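Bug: token stream looks shifted between consecutive jobs. Job 1:
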Amino acid sequence: MNTQSASSTNTLLRPMLTALAVIITLTANTLAVVLPLNNRSTKAISDSFNVFFTPSGYVFSIWSVIYTALIAFSVYSFLPRNRTNATLQAISPWFLLSCAMNSAWIFLWHYGFYPLTMLVMLVLLVSLIMVYVRLGIGETHYSSSDFWCVRFTFSVYLGWICVATIANATALLYDVQWSGFEISANVWTAIMLGVALTLGAILIETRRDTLLVSVFLWAFVGIALKHSSVAVVGTSAWAAVAVTALLLLRGMMLSWRNTKPKL
């Protein structure tokens, strides 16, 4: 193999690994739906936990958006200008880890290894945080293709995994029959909504990431609609919706101030 072909192979290795990781992730999640794995659908397992942080079923359609975005990201990685991109190289190990954790979580969830799902979910969360930080989201200006294939992808993905991590934790605590320090499940849900809102406020102030916080809004509306008959949960969720809408408005105003021309 001559030097030129070896160099070409090296620059294609990362995008090829990226595409392979996305294919494996999509395959694992498709099997979970089509078979389904262990004869149990992901939604059926989720519904078996009597917890209030789980949103209405339609909310989970966000996965179709995330997986479409991941496909776009894998194609984007093959573009000649991106094959040697230093930032994409820096996030590659963390992205590959996130795909491995996503796939592993599906199998663990379907076969009832709930404590391990929490551990895997946390690793998935950390890996996406590392991708997010290394991409400099909220601190970097993007071209149109960079925005839709990179920033959109990882803002939405991380936003949903933040929500999923809290939901996973509530499901695990329900499974082990944790008493919650004698605090009712309704109140704990309100507390978790408060934690998510605090995180949203931090992200708006530090990163002005309205995309990520919009995912929170999507989830909160789903929680409010599903549990509106439960006074504390419904009221807290609708309050979270209102506050999140204000946070998004705040984020848009901050972004506008930073982009408007100077006199």
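Job 2, same session, no restart:
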Amino acid sequence: MQAFVIGCTFTKTRSLVGLARAYMRRLMEESGETVNLATEDQGQMVYLAQVECRQMMRAFARPGSRVPLHCSGVGKAILSAGSDKTVAKILQQHGMPRLTVKTITTPALLHADLVRARAVGYAIDDEEHAVGLRCIASPIFDETGGAIAAVSVSGPMARIVDERVGPLSAMVLQAARDISAEMGAPQQS
């Protein structure tokens, strides 16, 4: 039975990457920034795929590499789609280690950030995971309406300045909606 469950999970993840690839490429072309696809596994986000931008300075996350939920854009996007009870359980199990001086390390501050992310549909990592790196991410939903992954753009703070957050977040939201629709997610209002 366990092998069947693992096999089904692998198949679904593989089809997600295949379905998302064209939307990720389009997002990279429109934004000029690196695009990532990640899913939650055992309290961390695992990168499934990346489309690198053409800029000399760019973010790089090798598929299979892991990042914490509480301080990564993709992690906070997934957390924002979950219940407060689920978030509290994850934080209790994995903690909130500080990776930079800007890492959110208290449940109250993370809760406030997730409330904002839920309201706007995207999460931001503002140098919380790595100094000099900004990431904007939105959750991807499946046919059950559950968040199964997140898509993001990431790049140096020198390029992803405050004035670009609005336009970039709109692009990320659209890509997440398009991928979600391909996965059979119910239409969001």
